[in-house]
From TrEMBL:
Signal peptide: none annotated. Residues 72-269 form the PNPLA domain. The nitrogen atoms of the two glycine residues in the GGXR motif define the oxyanion hole, and stabilize the oxyanion that forms during the nucleophilic attack by the catalytic serine during substrate cleavage. Belongs to the patatin family. One of its GO terms (biological process) is lipid catabolic process. This is Patatin. Its EC number is 3.1.1.-. It comes from Stephania cephalantha. It is an enzyme of class 3 (hydrolase). Keywords: Hydrolase, Lipid degradation, Lipid metabolism. It comes from the Eukaryota. Lipolytic acyl hydrolase (LAH). GO terms for molecular function: hydrolase activity.
Length: 436
């Protein structure tokens, strides 16, 4: 899913984001609510189809045979700088180990796709990039500690600056941090499909780093350290992060993924529904299990009081990103409708700020957030406060993920047929035994 949206001046970034949001929501509406439009030409053209929507398809029989595609989506940093999502993932991984009986189970074992923006992109990268032993380079609790320990460093990425500065400047602390974590790993080295957004100033459009694209051509394959730098680049603090693809043909001048897509859940869902090569039997939300992790909400005044150094521009970007996240959650909730209780879970919290806290306080605050009962969208009924806490929802959904894992062991048809690539080449093949 490479960036391919129309260009507009940098000052009109919000227009590009609005266009992207509109296109995603249009697909969600036609594909989910009405069970229509399987014609790929519709999505490629971006044109609406004015013909009456055909009857909703019954996918229950096929879903029962082929199973469900499991999607993990992690928001940008929010008011917790990614700590809430990190704690949620640590809890989820612990429950997956307990319920599966596998003490070495990882989050990546139980998901087929991972999407993350900003700090969420870093978490997704750490949990889904292959290490030297063939397993993810970090466990969920290790990724959480990575965020906590390096929180301040991660808030600053390189400024593109002038020509000579780009050539001769030393690596920033965050760049060194990403290099130590990921080494020379690229998007091709991720264990499962990943989607990590940024906003590209070179093309003046959103850009999504995608494993699927990287396996098609080196022109879309980027080093994971660059991917993380791109999705974390704060334009109000350190400017843009400039980088090139593995083959040096594609140039990106990136700023924060939250500018383009703070909540990447809808993008991940539409990627799966339209990627028939890797997800051949996935046609509707009935064929999905989706976990969407938020990172806290805030009002502008509260944010400024907690962080007096925050510039008006930074405050605006944070508020806009969080508002877009809520819109995506509401749209996805409406799309799932009555199936939301079993197929979609959103973990989010409010009322807490994490400025000037030590590591232990960070975790304790996030733990309190997970004890909250949150507001949830209900199809045609507005919103309501749910009965279950965030922890309750994680516990239940961990069980659903393990059930799907067990069901695949006796499945006739593969749910996922992942693209695979030979090391350091751009030739992609299909793995017909990718059941997890």
């Amino acid at each position: 899913m490479a960036a391919a949206l129309a260009a507009s001046p940098m000052i009109d970034t919000n227009l590009e984001v609005d266009k992207l949001t509109y296109e995603i929501f249009s697909i969600l509406e036609t594909k989910f609510l009405f069970g229509a439009y399987d014609d790929p030409k519709l999505f490629l053209s971006g044109k609406s189809n004015n013909s009456p929507a055909p009857p909703v398809k019954n996918h229950h029989r096929r879903g029962g045979v082929a199973g469900k595609v499991r999607i993990l989506s992690v928001d940008g940093g929010g008011t917790t700088d990614g700590i809430l999502a990190g704690v949620s993932l640590a809890h989820l991984e612990e429950r997956l180990r307990s319920k599966s009986g596998d003490p070495d189970a990882r989050v990546a074992d139980f998901f087929d796709v991972a999407a993350g923006s900003g700090a969420g992109g870093i978490l997704a990268s750490l949990l889904f990039t292959r290490g030297k032993d063939g397993r993810p380079i970090m466990k969920a609790d290790e990724a959480l500690q990575f965020l906590i320990k390096n929180r301040r460093k991660l808030m600053t990425t390189c400024n593109s600056g002038g020509f000579f500065r780009r050539i001769f400047r030393p690596e920033t602390s965050s760049e060194k941090l990403f290099r130590r974590a990921f080494g020379e790993a690229t998007l091709k080295d991720t264990l499962k499909p990943v989607l990590i957004p940024c906003y590209d100033l070179a093309t003046r459009a959103p850009f999504v780093f995608s494993r699927a694209d990287a396996l098609e051509t080196d022109g879309y394959d980027f080093a994971m350290r660059q991917v993380c730098a791109a999705t974390m680049a704060d334009p109000t603090v350190a400017g843009a992060a400039e980088m090139r693809s593995v083959d040096k043909r594609t140039r990106i001048v990136a700023v924060d993924g939250g500018v383009a897509m703070n909540n990447p859940t809808a993008a991940a869902i539409t990627h799966v529904l339209n990627n028939k090569q890797e997800f051949p039997f996935c046609d509707s939300v009935e064929d999905l299990l989706v976990v969407s992790l938020g990172n806290g909400e805030s009002a502008s005044a509260a944010a400024r009081r907690a962080d007096p150094t925050m510039s008006p521009a930074a405050g605006f970007l944070k508020i806009a990103g969080e508002g877009a996240s809520d819109m995506v959650d509401q749209a996805v909730s409406m799309a799932f409708g009555e199936m939301m209780q079993n197929n979609y879970v959103r973990i989010q919290a409010s009322g807490f700020m994490m400025n000037n806290l030590n590591a232990r306080d960070h975790v304790e605050m996030a733990e309190e957030m997970l004890k909250q009962r949150n507001v949830e969208s209900v199809l045609f009924r507005g919103k309501k406060i749910v009965e279950k806490t965030n922890l309750d929802k994680l516990e239940i959904f961990a069980g659903e993920l393990v059930k799907e894992q067990e069901r695949r062991k006796s499945s006739i048809l593969p749910v996922v047929v992942l693209k695979q690539a030979s090391p350091r080449t751009s030739s992609a093949t299909l793995s017909t035994v990718s059941f997890c």
